[in-house]
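Folding Query — how this chain folds
Tokens — whole-number codes for backbone shape
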Amino acid sequence: MFKLDEFANGALAEKFNIEAQRVLENIADPNTDPKKARTITLTVTLKADENRELAMVDINAKASLAPAKGVQTKIIMGRDRQGKVEAAELKSGVVGQTYITDEGDVADDRGNKVVQFK
């Protein structure tokens, strides 16, 4: 009846291949869960004319992808001298602990340089 790779001048196969590429890129993305299922849905909708001699065919393809994994971090919270809430990302891993940055500088728990070597 129909050769799917030739249907609509190859548009059906092309739409599938575009969505398949998106799925493969999503699977290869290290920020997604590799165990989550991905799907490709092809929808072919036919609408006949009054005489039932012709049908308009609408072709759509849609991929359902795995979402990106969430990212977590810790923030230090407190109040300033006026009582206003303030927060900063915890960089050192432990509140109040200094650490050595990737650049070799000594920094406080918020990532601010505390010692400069000369």
Observations:
- Residues 75-115 form one domain.
- The first strand starts at residue 39 and ends at 48.
